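Appendix C reproduces, verbatim, an entry submitted by the partner laboratory led by Prof. M.T., so that reviewers can inspect both the input and the predicted structure.
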Amino acid sequence: MPDKYILAHDMGTSADKAALFTVHGDIVDIANMHYPMTHPAPSHAEQNPGDWWNAVCATTRDVLKKTGINPKDIVGITFSSQTQGLVAVDKNGVPVRPAMSWLDGRSANTLREQLWKPPRLLGYNIFRLIDFLRITGGSPGQTGKDQIGKILWMREHEPALFEKTHKFVDVKDFILFRLTGAYITSVDIATLWWFLDSRKKRNTWHRGLCALAGITPERLAEVKPSGAVVGSIQPSAAAEIGLLPGTPVVNGAGDLSSAAVGSGAIREGELHICVGTSGWVAGHFS
């Protein structure tokens, strides 16, 4: 019986890395491709979602070519990705503007004026802060890098594009749509959008918090677990990526969550250090 394989993509801030694994977890080979970041104005950081898709397709074809593995032996594809990159797409799934990277801080003033209104405590509207903490377990910051600020900035400065937007999705989830035609996100990424009611693992979009950004939950992706099979590769996407139509697509997760699992520091109180375009120390605490 021939070996079977899983294709995993790490869509970072500056490049996509494709890694081909056996179903037993052994790395067979890797491929990577860089994509640019543009800074059209101070505090602006943007990427072309099409560049992500082209990189995913190119690295997939490259790693298959290098290994000589038949696409019929690929039993699934999944993703880790940068997070808090806002992709606004129309009814056809076409981006209405470049994606705002997690590095983009243009909405800091918008957040202060529209979300963190007085009465303030350390820059936060105390009543809204309590609501965020109670419902989500956390809160948007003041830097303008959170999704709520980017959406508010679009509504204020690009109202025509805001109205044209059918869905607001994150980086990984745009690629999931290109592959499957479905708008799906993972719980870990949804948590960082600060619209998610995470109490007692409800993991559903909170209509009241969404309203603070001037949107409804219907304009966001459906939330599913990272290990969920969210669909299969459509024929049109299969022709571009070099895999067979019907290949299962697994939801995946953001890079922070993926790094935590990959580090092996998954027990109570264990920490890991991650160094990349950004860096952090994280751990599990109850």
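The chain is about 30% helix and 25% strand. Additional entries are available on request from the coordinating office.
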